[in-house]
Amino acid sequence: DQDHYFSIKEELTNKICGLAGEYTDREVEVFVNTGDDEKTGCVYLTVTGTSAEMGDDGSVGRGNRCNGLITPNRPMSMEATSGKNPINHVGKLYNLLSNQIAKDIAKNVSGIEDVYIRILSQIGYPIDEPLIASAQVIPQDGANMKVIESESEAIIDKWLGDITKITEMITRGELDTF
User: How confident is the model at residue 154 (pLDDT cuts 50, 70, 90)?
Assistant: First the structure.
């Protein structure tokens, strides 16, 4: 019964917001099963609780990094990029995209010692509209942070605006996936 399902979702959302309010005065947004579309009656539920039933699976698990490195003391994704769908598997795309953005920023923005890119998806939203896209920059001494921020944001926006380029690069064999 979809009406019951959606009422339970609303109840759960309200309970979580209430609970969060007991721990913080900050504004909290709660999203439950964002792949659902109540207007069309479409719900994103699986029997097993995994995305494998919905075509989001890949032939490898965790461990193989797209840059070939396992870096326990640095930010890294646990998502393997090999064997995953190059069109809509956000773990694969965001991992490779983050790598390309970081390379682009490191190469084209002066005054950077190191850069880390984080991209976070949200189910139900387009791939080119991540919930979070952020850059953590470690500048060189005396670097102009306003310039670094502006140029880095422009590079991130450029890549997000043309995210299909990553798929094209994958299919042409231009990106290493392990």
Answer: very high
Which residues have CB under 8 Å from 54's CB, separation 6+? Answer: 44, 46
Q: What is the CATH number of domain 58-171?
A: 3.30.300.280
C-alpha to C-alpha distance for 146 and 54, rounded to whole angstroms: 43
What are the structural domain ranges in the chain? Answer: 1-45, 58-171
Q: How far is CA 78 from CA 22, 32, 49, 96, 133, in A?
A: 33, 24, 20, 12, 17
Q: What is the pLDDT of residues 68-88, one digit of tens each?
A: 666 677 777 666 666 667 777
Q: Which residues pair with 62 in a beta bridge?
A: 79
Residue 140, amino acid: Q
Phi/psi at 119 (5° precision): -130, 130
Q: Max CA-CA distance within the chain?
A: 62
pTM of model > 0.85? no
C-beta of residue 133 within 8 angstroms of C-beta of residue 160: yes
